[in-house]
Each structure stands twice: as structure tokens, then as C-alpha cells.
Specification:
The complex is a heterodimer of chains A (583) and B (607). Chain A is α/β, with parallel strands linked by helices. Chain A has 17 helices and 12 strands. In chain B, α9 packs antiparallel against α14 and α16 runs antiparallel to α18. The two termini of chain B are 54 Å apart. Chain B is flat and about 90 Å long. Classes of the chains: A alpha/beta (583), B alpha+beta (607).
Amino acid sequence: MASTESPSTPPGLKPTPPQGAARAAAPPARYEPVIKCIGLTKVFRDFWLRQRVTAVDGIDLDVCRGDVFGLLGPNGSGKSTTIKLMLGLLHPTAGRVAVLGKHPQDVQTKMQIGYLPEESYLYPFLNARETLDYYGTLFHLPRRQRLQRIDMLLDMVGLQGAQHRPVGQYSKGMQRRIGLAQALINDPELLILDEPTNGLDPIGARQIKDLILELSQRRKTILLCSHLLADVEDVCTRVAIMYGGKVRATGTVDELLVRKDITAIQVEGLNEDDLRDLGAMLEARGKHIDHVDKPRRKLESLFLDIVRQAQTQGVSTGGAKAGGQIAQFLKSDPSNASQGDSVIAALTAAGAATVAPRTTSPPPGQPEPKTPTASEAQPQARPTQPEEADVVDRLVKAAQPPAPPPVEPTEQQTPGHTQQPPTADTEDTSVIEQLVSAEPLDTPSSEPTAAEPPPDVAKAPAASPPAPPPQADAPQSPPQAGTPSPFEKILEQQALEPWEGDEDDDADSHEAVKTEAQPPASPRDDASASSDDASPAKPKPVSPPHTVSERSQPDPSQPHEEKPYESFTEAVEDVPPYDPDAP
Amino acid sequence: MFVKRVGFLLLITALLALQGLLLLMWLWGVVPYRPLWLGGVAVADALLLGWACYGWWQTREWYWPWLAGLSAAAAGSGALWVLDYRGSAVVVVGVGCMWLGFFFGHGLIRAALSPGIAWAGVARTLIDEAIRMKLVLAMLVGLLLIVPALPFMLDPKELLRYRIQFFLTWSLSSAAVLLSVMTVALSCATVCGDMSRKQVYLSLTKPLSRGQYLLGKWVGVMLLNLLLVLVTGVGVYVFAKVMQMQPHRDRHDRAAIDNQVFVARRSQPAQPPPDLDLNAVFETRLTQLQADDPTRYAPDNLTPGDRLAIQRVVEARWHTIPPLGSQRYLFTGLDRAKAFGQWVQLRFKPVSSATPPDQRVRLAMWLNGRPYPTDPGTGLQKPIVVADSKYYIVDLPVSMIDADGRLDVRIDNVDLDSPRATFASSVSFAPGQGLEVLYQAGRFESNLARALVMIWVRLGFLAMLGLAAGAVLDFPVACLLCGLVYAAAGAHEFFIESMQLYVPVPGRDRAWWEALQWLIHAFFERLMSGQVWEAVKVVVRLVGNGFVLLIPSFSHYNPVPLVADGRVVAGRTLASAVLWVGLVSTGGCAAVGWAMLRARELARVTV
């Protein structure tokens, strides 16, 4: 709210600098580029070989291992052409492209690539099983393994019941499902999805997003090309926006989307008095509540609930069933993960427990939650998972002051460009700090006291002085006696949200909170619980007494079923409301 | 589950095969015909048919339609037999057997292509595509109907030998043409379809090189062709054998069937007798020509083509018998004929220089110094009276061949009944097939197998041609190009003759580089003399020569007339076909197709 940055230039969105400069801003060596485009250009010619359309115009692009990279742009902006250049289906007019370090037409490289084109170009005379068997054969999979994977994939995409029907008789959505299954049959390291949710029902779309998150957890690289910005926003860690064959902007989702000038608070229903008090308090600090709203439930969650209810009642359907579990060979199950993955997972878990737990411990009496599944993972603030060496570094530096997690530099950054700190740590939380330091609302006469412990969530390394290094054996400030103020509850609850928590949250603070609050429910929790019954350790969503969200992105964690409480989002912003007629 | 299915299918197949065998035994008279048995079998087949249809309706499993087809064939044949339409019953049994063979062959090929090999996956998918394409299905049904039905469409009053030869010729030719059309259509359609429907986007973004893609497609087409050729070959053989058992007109008809049709005969051309030195004759002729035209036939100007032409004239004169004259012809290397059969055939085609009034040529023949044939009663030599310019075959006992495997044939141009009335016309035989001895050198079965292999090799070229054309052209254009090449390959010799008539090159026996040299020289000569159109014709001929040079000669490698005529499809000819058609031409097409596909942008957009 302090900033008055124009909405048209959201923070983090950097115009694409000259290509030469962008080339100089190569990412650090620890980021292994899976796809690298240098000055990539494609010009289509007419019948007389005259150059007519420059579909791709000298783009430089790096997609690194573990990225979920979104390629955005309107129709004709060159997204699909870029993908086809990466796949060797087109030859570049100028520039170079390397996929997994090899030429795009290198046959062995394609062993590690899965591709879902914008439409499902399948053989209409083959049935689903024959189709997957064919593509499995192209990957040299032995017959037994093919059959196992086909069964799992058919179950995953919900086409077991239609597996003997020719694909030509499928609906478009069913064909997309088979298309997705064929793209996954080799358990690819690089998955290229061109409009993956095109033609899919909300269940399939949700399933694809969950799958992307699951694969992302396994350090798979995913290149996602879509018009559906919400889909990209939900799952991507980095995006590039194309127009006219050029990359106009690139960066992490947070860099591009987080609005530092706005703070949104989500809290259990407040009455008029509470609002009035809150407004008065803000007015005293020179702020004002700009917008008070009750969040609406998402149509997607409503749809999923209805379908789930119908399935529970055993209503039959001739089309695709709701997708089953993600195929076992695609999951990050330790039994299926490679040894390297297991090591990384173990180190990460240890690091998380020692250094800065990003997820809260379960409340007493509840089982320890597993590593977040795809449904639970929140990509918005999830930094790129570091390499093993980085994890070790984190372990070594556990007792040191927290440093902002590395943010992958963008391709278009100029060499002298100052690296932006990670969004999760750079949100403007000064107001929250001030609010927390103020007296509780139910004691309006009290003055802010400096003796009150600072809230956990208020630590913003980039915006505030670095906190002292946490001492594992240092005595923690005990919780204040008596009933905590609503803001304290709100802010403590915010600390529980796994995507919001800072790495320097100390465990004792969470202990204090746990007795009062549960992790917030998210739609992904629900979806996962419905589709993955084999995860008993997953905590059931329990509605928290208070929640505060401080985000400017659409909130994916809004509870959508069995809500025993009301919630609303207060958006406080300095910028005027959106006026479509404004210049 | 898989074992149960296979066992079930084997059981049903065994039952149907037993039934077919029973019908054949009844047909051949091995077991007595009992209508009650046949009625029971037909009822059982009808029940089986109903069961198969029900199973297909319920489960939609792939093998039920096949089983239903087989059951229908079995039940239909039984019913037709009971109704005394025995020929039709045999046709239906034949269709069923070929259907069964195709069914199991198809399953076998699919199983063989199931390992995780990329090109094998492409091949298997192509076979599935081919089976489910209506065009291929129509070809398949046509093939399955023509072969069994053809024997019963022939005039029964005709000599059985001719009927069998007609059947062999038309069934094999129809199969070759149908399979060629199917191969071209399938090859072009599969690649063009993949391109236009963008299925290559998925296939070629997998670890499958473009060469492997073409290889897989080609292997798929060739395996399908192999299956169809085999099924056709078995059908042709079985029905030819069935026809062989039908009543013949007389003993000569039977002997001709046994000795001239169901055999594989090798041809032995005539050699000059020891007392005739053709080289000396050649030199004499050359000396005479040089005396007549010293410039044209000077040793420095004499080309190999000129020498070959003179040599042919000498041979033609040796194959010409003046009125009341005689010539001796020696056939050697016939000792192997004794091992195979009782007879050899002397096949000749006399051509008189002036047509006799009754259009007949009268000759007398001597074998190893003895007259042949002789009247068994009187022992006198019998004249050979044959139609002018018609082939005639004389059966000769192998006992006539001497211990060295030689047969000395002397032919007199004389009317034995009245030598003074001998028509004053010389009689000549074309060197080569105008006068030859045919002797059995193999069995009909192996000969048919070699013929089928040669047909298959030709199909291999067409398959690769279609794939290469489909890699760069759209479907209609690719089909037209393949059709043009197929027609040119089939009429290869006709094309050469036509070009020779269009722009004659002196000396037919010139080597190709001599002809090319002459054509280039003629082009500039005519251009400089202002004969522009004549120069253009030379260019057209050059282009035609180049085109003909690029395509293989299917007419040269056509085994059907050989099989129908009981001639051996020589291993050397087969090897030559494999080399030139199967390796050189097909390999050339493959290289061109691969290069073009590799250079092609699969997602190209022309704006």
C-alpha cells in the first residue's frame, strides 16, 4: 500500500532487454538447462519461397531442470512453433536450440521427452490400449513393462472402461486423456505440454495440474504452453510471455505477479464492530480499508464436489471416469524414485526439519503429515528445489541467519541487473508487523508494547533487518498469558500456511500456535483426498479459527466444502479500482 | 486368460480343419460320402456360427469375427454340399481355409512384432491400419474370392491342361496386380495420412529416427504382402491340384498336364553340331561384307554392336532350312533330364518364308540318327505336319538321349509323303525359344514358391516407392507417380521399343553408352542443321531412356507365364530379381525417400 506502482507494470515484470544482453545474463551453473534457445528464429515462406511470416523472432530461452515453465501468448505469438522447433519438427531459420544438451533431432534424447501436442494426433483405428502399446514400443519398453504402465495410465486417465473402443470414436476430452497418457508412458524427464487442458473437463484439467505438480516434485522439467492463464498461474514456477514471435517478459511467477503494494487479509468472519475497529486502527496509521469482500467458492471446486458425489452414488457413465490415482511409476514414491531422488528427498526433509520447517507439525493427536503431495504443494512460493549440494549447504548453514532462497535469474536480465529477492520473503509485511506490535482489538485502550514478541510471519529478510540467528537451545519467548488477540491468532495461523512460512520460523513459535490452529484446508487437499485414498497420513482439512492470507494471487487454498466458518478477504490497496475505460 | 483364449481358438480351428479335410476326402473319394454325417456337421457349424456371433456381440473381442467367418464358411460349404452344389461348396471351403490362414498369419506377425523395438511397433501399427482400411479389405476380399471361384468359371469343354494353365495365369496375375495396387495405395496412404493428420508429430518426437520410421512402414507392408502372397499361393496350389483331379479329355491331355504343367522345366537351346563351325561362318560372312563395303566394315570401324549383328545373322541362317534341305541341332546337358522324368519336350515354332496353301509346314525329324516318330505298325517314319508360325511340342522319350546327355536332332524341310510336292519355302526357327528342348529340372511346388518370392520382391520395390513418394507428395500425386512407374516397369520392353521407333538409333545391339553417344551427337547435328523438332525428339528420347533406366523391368521378372507354362523360374533369375529389383531399385528408392523425409520439415507451414 505504500507503493503506488502502476498496475500496468506489476512488480517483478521486467521488459525483455536486448537479446545480446540477455545472453550475457546466463543462469548460474547449478541450474542445468534442459532446453536452451539462442537467437532462435523461424520464418515461414510462401509457395515462391518468399519470407512471409516470422513466427519466432530471435528468442533466447532457458528452461532449467525442475522448472515448470509456462509459455504464454496469444494466438499466433509463436508458442507452438517454438515447441516444434524444440522437438525437431521444424528447422530453425536462424539460431540454435538444444534439448537436454543435444540437437532436437537426436533420437536418443527423445527417450527422455514426453510430448502432448495441441491436439491429440492419434491413430483413429487403434483402441486406447493399442495406442499406448504403440507409443510404449517406440520407447523400446519391454512388453511386460508396457502392459503394466498401460494399465496404470488407463486407470489414471479414467479410460479403463473404454480401452477397447477405437480412439476415433472418443470424444475430444477422452482423446486428450489418451494423448496425455502417451506422453507419460516413458516417465519423461522433460514433458512438453501444448495446451494440455484444451478440451478437458474440470476433473481432467485438475488432474493434469496435480500431475504437473507431482512431476515437478520429482524434479521433472515441464514446459507448458497454454492460453489458460489460470492454469499456468496455478502450476508454473517460471513463465515467458510471447508476442509477435518474441519473448516480451520472463521470470518466476512470483516475480511477475506478486503485487507488493497490496496486502490481503483473510480472517474468520468479522462483524461490523470488528470491521469498524479495524478500520479505525488502520486509519490511525494512515491506512484505510479499500475493499471488504466475502470470497466466493470456486466453480471448479463446486463442480468437483458434484461429480464426486455422483460417483459416490454409483451413477454410471459411458465416458471417461474420473481419473484414478497418478500412475505409480510417475509418483515420487521412494520405492519408485531413483537413488538420487531418495537422497535429495531425505536431505530435503532433514533440512526442512532442522532449518526452517515450511510445513507445520500436525496438531496433537493427528498423524504426522507426509511430504506434501501434488495436491498439497503450492507452487506460487515454492522456490526451485536446490541440487544436493545446495541442500547440504542449507544443512550446514542451519544455525546461520536465514538468507533469501535463490531466485533463478531471468534470461532477459541485464548483466548489471540487481537480483530480486524471492517473493515469499520480499512481501511488504511491515504493516503486519506494525499491526502485531499494536494492542489487541479487544483492548483498545492498551498501547503497543515493545515487549511483545514479534510474529513469525513478520520476518521479511529483504525488507527488514535480518533476524538474529536462531539458537536451537535458546529459550523462546513464551506465549503471552491470556487469550491472544485476533490479530495474533491471524498472524500465527498465517505462519502455518506451508507456502507462506519463512525459513527462519522457529519451531517453538509453531508449537505455541499448534494448540490453537490447524493447517488450512486447500482445494488440493480435498482433491487429493478424494482421489488418493491410499494416503492415510494426510491430515484432513480442518477449518482454522482464523486465517490470514497475504497474497495478491488468487487464493488456491480457499476452503470449499464443509466450512463451519465464514471467511473473507480484505484487500487493502492504494491503487484505484480497475476501470476498463481508463487509458 | 491368454492361454485359455489360445487353447479355445486352437480347438475350434482343429474342428474346422477336420471338417475341411473330411470334405476334401469326400471330394477325392477317399471315404464314402454319407449325407447324414454331412448334415450333422452342417448343423454343428451353424451352432458354432451362432455362438461366435453371440460372443462377438457380447464381448467385442477381436477373434470372434474371425471365428464367425470361419463357422459361416464351414456351415455354408456343408449346406451347399448337401444341396449338391459341390463346386460351390469347394469354393466356400477354399475361402474359409484362406481366411483361416490369413487369420493365423496375421496373429503370428503381430506376435513377432510385439517386442519393444521401435520400427517393429511402426510395422505392427501399419498392419493394423491396413487390416482396418476399407480399401485393403476390399482387395483382400477380392483376392479371397477370385482364387477359389476362378476354377469354376472356366469352360469345362476346354482341354483340362488349358484350363489349369488359364487358372494359374489369371489367378497369379490377378493376385500380383491386386497386391501391387494395394501396396501402392497402402504405402502412399500410410505416410501421407501420417503427415496430413499430423500423427508424425507424435511418432517422430519419440526415439524413432526417420529411417526407422520408413523401415517400419516398409517392413509392415512387406509382412502383410508376404502373408497375402502366401495365402494366395497356397490357395492357387490347392485349387490347381483340385483341378488336376478333374476329368481330362484324353490321355494326351493327361500327359500334358503331368509333363508340361505341374513341372518345372528347364530350356536347353540348340547348339551347332561339331561339324559346323559358326565362327568360321562368321568370319566368312564378315569378309564378304568387307569386300562389299570396305569403308563401313573396315576393322577400325567395326563396333561390337556390328559384330553382334553379324553373329545374329549367322545364327539365323543356321536356324533356317531351305526347301528339301536339312539342318542339325545338338542339345547337350540333358543327362539331368533322365533323373526327373520319362519325357523331354522338343518345342519349336516353324516359320515358313512363304505361307503354304494349307498354312501347314511339313517336316521330317531324326533323333540321334533315327527317324522319329515312327508308325508302331509299319515302323515307317511319320511326317510332322504343323501349322505355320505356331508353337508345337513333340514329346521325346528320355531313352533317346545318349549316355553323354546329348540329343542330336536333324530336321528336314521335306514332305515325306511326296517329296517332290514339297512347298518351295524355307522354314526357319527363331534362335532361342523358336527351337528348344524342355526337360524337367524341378518340382512344381518349388517353382511356384520361387515365383511367389519374385512377386513379393517386386512388391517390395512398389512399397518403398510408395513410401518415398508419400514422404514428399500428397496422396493423389504420390499414387499417380507410383502408378506411372508401375505401368512403365510392367511395360518396360514396350517402352524401349517405342523409343526406338520414335527416334531410331542405328544398330539395335549397341551398348547403352554407344547409344548415348550417338544421341548426343545426333542432337547437336540436327540442331545445327536447323531441324529443331528432330533435335527435341532426341531430347525426349534421352529423357525416356533415363526414366526407363531408373525403373526396374517387371516384364523381365514376371514369373507368371513361366509357372503357367511349366517352365522353371531359375534361381539365377530370382537372384537377379533380388539384386536389381530388391536391392538396387528398392534401395535407391529407400535412400531417396529417407533423404527427402530427413530434410522435410514435418510441421511446415506454407503461407
